[in-house]
Specification:
alpha/beta; 2 domains; ProC C-terminal domain-like fold; 13% strand; eight-stranded mixed sheet
């Protein structure tokens, strides 16, 4: 009997979703099949999750509930070309391929319910942010299933597909921006005399704790900033230097540049 969930591509993001979906009980190991061309990856997935694996994408496409495309965009045409038949009824098709629009997916999979998703790398530890855009054939039940799938690896938000490039520039590329900021904070600590390991620990926990505080309190970031600063104090001196060096502008323009590049790659 065909499995409920098929995953095309057992790489980092595919495995992250697989791991959390099984751990959360949304799918049992016997309900999942993953196709991947690497025998080493297939063996690892079997050893880790006790699922069925294959090197034939068609077998994963025969899943009854949902099929996830977790391959590089340049592989997409070959994946489509290798299909020998279309299952009936069609399962929900979920694409996490960057830069592949719904129009291309719907042209290749005519009549299928399709969701385009943009998760980010913190999904690998269950702290991701995923934006989803719905195709023309998607029903409320399909939408709920997509939200459940990506809810297993973090938070989910519905957006119009026209906003996907902006999502890519912010949450898709954002973990790299934050990593650079954490590295820079740690470097500043080292320059001030802290041992490297302690400086990095302080930087990581400060960023993590601030994000959790903002999320829990629902404070506007500007309000939290004002609460931390005091007249003539150390924090306002540091913020004044950040402003004079253009940190705010640099981040705004980084999101814009990544958004534009995403738009170019999708053309």
């Amino acid at each position: 009997m065909p499995e409920k969930l098929g995953i095309i591509g057992g790489g980092v993001m595919g495995e992250a979703l697989l791991s959390r979906l099984i751990a959360s009980g949304i799918y049992q190991p016997g309900e999942v099949i993953v196709s991947d061309p690497s025998s080493e990856r297939r063996e690892k997935l079997v050893d880790s999750y006790d699922i069925r694996v294959t090197d034939l994408n068609q077998q994963a496409f025969d899943a009854t509930e949902a099929v996830m495309l977790a391959v590089k965009p340049q592989i997409f045409p070959a994946v489509v070309a290798a299909l020998t038949h279309t299952p009936a009824p069609q399962p929900l098709l979920v694409s996490i391929m960057a830069g592949v629009p719904l129009a291309s997916l719907e042209a290749a999979f005519s009549g299928w319910p399709i969701v385009r998703a943009m998760p980010n790398t913190p999904a690998t530890v269950g702290a991701g942010m995923t934006a989803i855009a719905l195709g023309q054939q998607v029903t409320p039940a399909h939408q709920a299933l997509a939200q459940q799938i990506f809810g297993s690896v973090g938070e989910v938000v519905d957006v119009a597909e026209s906003l996907m490039d902006a999502v890519t520039g912010l949450s898709g590329s954002g973990p790299a921006y934050v990593a650079v900021m954490i590295e820079a904070l740690a470097d500043g600590g080292v320059a001030a005399g802290l041992p490297r390991a302690i400086a990095l620990q302080l930087a990581i926990q400060t960023v993590k704790g601030t994000a959790e505080l903002l999320q829990a309190s629902q404070l506007h970031p500007a309000v939290l900033k004002d609460r931390v600063t005091s007249p003539g104090g150390t924090t306002i001196a540091g913020i004044a230097r950040l402003e004079s060096l253009g940190l705010r502008t640099a981040l705004i323009e980084a999101v814009g540049a990544a958004c534009q590049r995403s738009r170019e790659l999708g053309e």
